[in-house]
Design brief:
Blueprint: H1 3-18, H2 28-54, E1 57-58, E2 66-67, H3 71-78, H4 80-110, H5 116-126, H6 133-143, H7 151-158, H8 173-198, H9 202-210, H10 215-226, H11 228-242, H12 247-252, H13 264-274, H14 278-303
Antiparallel strand pairs: 1-2
Helix pairs in contact: 2-14, 3-14, 4-8, 4-11, 4-13, 8-11, 11-14, 13-14
């Protein structure tokens, strides 16, 4: 008999949880999410489905679309400019991912701590993350001015180097764009790695100090294994971001000079909005979506921690 009131008291929190955190009916959270869901449906998922449809047609806005099946995909896969753009995309993606990860790791090690000075420095270094990529690209385009009066060339001149062509030189343009990408992404990686460093058990450092472990050994055997979840997140985000590189390339070079920095997205842009070949552009975008999903899943599987 005494168990029945106890069971009733235990059932009350469950019933309250079913009513939702806001204390209202269970449908209330969905009602609050409805505007965002409608926004995503209208501006993301419906255009995505429309892009899949257009990839199977020769799009002629005033003459009617003509069914071509997989011909647009064949055009993309056999186009030499698309293959070159894919190579540039992969080079930029790998270079920016590795460079930003290493630089972010070093910044996190240097700026780990709780003093006010470090807080100010971390805030200043984080500014590129909250700045529009187009603005960053325009600033770096000015810094890269390819003459002796350019800011970067003036600094290089102090060491007897240069002047360099940077964005105007086909042999240097891709590396110059890569440097901008590393500079932009490294502060974000620093913040994620700092969060990972905060989760490492400090007693491990104390035990390592007692055992006389060197700094390099502490980083290798304590810090890096402890940062595995953070590195997994960063690599997953980098896998998504690397194949969608567009804004910085478009602002800095527009894909030039002589196509030396043309990436997948700038090629799609030129086909879709300059040549009005929307069918081939849609097919290229669909392939990019498929490759991004596969690369993301592969990165998650490769970095998943085995238990």
């Amino acid at each position: 008999m005494t168990a029945i009131p106890v069971l009733r008291r235990r059932a009350r929190p469950v019933a309250a949880a079913r009513r939702g955190l806001l204390g209202g009916p269970a449908w209330l959270p969905w009602a609050l999410l409805l505007p965002a869901l409608l926004f995503a449906l209208t501006f993301k998922f419906i255009p995505m489905v429309e892009g899949l449809r257009m990839s199977l047609y020769k799009v002629q806005p005033f003459l009617g679309d003509e069914w071509v099946g997989l011909e647009n995909y064949k055009t993309v896969l056999t186009d030499s400019r698309f293959r070159g753009a894919l190579g540039h995309t992969l080079l930029l993606g790998v270079g920016q991912t590795v460079g930003a990860l290493v630089l972010g790791f070093l910044l996190a090690l240097l700026l780990e701590g709780s003093s006010r000075t470090l807080w100010v420095l971390r805030t200043a270094i984080f500014l590129p993350v909250v700045t529009a990529v187009a603005v960053i690209g325009e600033v770096w385009r000015i810094l890269y001015f390819p003459s002796e009066t350019g800011f970067v060339n003036q600094i290089a001149g102090w060491f007897g180097l240069g002047p360099f062509g940077f964005l105007s030189d086909p042999d240097q343009a891709l590396v110059s764009v890569m440097v901008v990408g590393v500079w932009t992404a490294a502060p974000y990686n620093m913040v994620i790695i700092l969060a990972g460093l905060a989760g490492i058990d400090r007693t491990l450092y104390e035990a390592a100090a007692v055992d006389g472990v060197s700094r390099w050994q502490r980083i290798r055997y304590i810090v890096v294994p402890g940062l595995r979840p953070a590195i997994s997140v960063l690599l997953t985000l980098a896998a998504i971001r690397s194949l969608r590189i567009f804004t910085e390339v478009f602002v800095l070079t527009g894909g030039g000079p002589a196509g030396s920095t043309e990436v997948w997205m700038t090629r799609v842009f030129s086909l879709g909005f300059q040549r009005n070949d929307l069918g081939v552009a849609s097919a290229a975008s669909t392939l990019l979506l498929l490759v991004t999903v596969l690369l993301t899943l592969g990165t998650r599987l490769a970095t998943r921690r085995t238990r």
